[in-house]
Specification:
By secondary structure, the chain is an alpha/beta fold. It has a single domain, classed as Aconitase, domain 4 (Alpha-Beta Barrel). 31% of the residues lie in helices and 17% in strands. It has a seven-stranded mixed β-sheet with strand order 4-3-2-1-5-6-7. A hairpin with a 4-residue loop joins β6 and β7. α4 crosses α5.
């Protein structure tokens, strides 16, 4: 994926990604309209499909709500690259199909508006603006499959529908 980057700092919490006053809905378009509202004025209106968020340490800290990665994905962001992620945000991002990459070396030279390319399979971040390339641990095939299918829930529903997984019957 290739796009312009939006640079954020360390410890961006889920309340900054999607303010709590918008948690009355799980509608992706509504959440996208308010993504990063308190942190970067105009982000939701200016972000373009395929743009990338680049952040420092502990991106997505705070509450465990899935609204935050959903707001980012629905805004059109193609991938989030950070020095590190809060563990529950990382899991929620995979669950809803938002590609995320841990690559602290790439973050060090990141600036708003740079053009980047992220290759999940090869494990490479290319800063096309600076002509630099940094490696990260490639995303395993099963995770790329989950992301391409829209996340864990979409993948599980498809596998049940195709008879790959049994339907749950009865029980608690």
């Amino acid at each position: 994926m290739r796009g312009r980057i939006w640079r954020f700092g360390d410890h961006v919490d889920t309340d900054a990604i999607i303010p709590a006053r918008y948690l009355h809905t799980s509608e992706p378009a509504e959440l996208a309209a308010h993504c990063m509202e308190g942190l970067r004025d105009g982000f939701a209106a200016a972000v373009q499909p395929g743009d990338l968020i680049v952040a420092g340490e502990n991106f997505g800290c705070g509450s465990s709500r899935e609204h935050a990665p959903l707001a980012i994905r629905a805004s059109g962001v193609g991938c989030v690259v950070a020095a590190s992620f809060a563990r529950i945000f990382y899991r929620n991002a995979v669950n809803i199909g938002l590609p995320i990459v841990v690559c602290p070396d790439a973050v060090q030279t990141a600036a708003d508006g740079q053009e980047w390319e992220v290759d999940l399979e090869a494990g490479r971040v290319r800063n096309l603006t600076l002509g630099a390339e940094v490696a990260f641990e490639p995303v395993p095939p099963f995770m790329r499959e989950l992301l391409a299918a829209g996340g864990l829930i979409s993948t599980t529903c498809r596998r049940i529908a195709e008879g790959e997984l049994p339907r749950r019957r009865g029980g608690p």
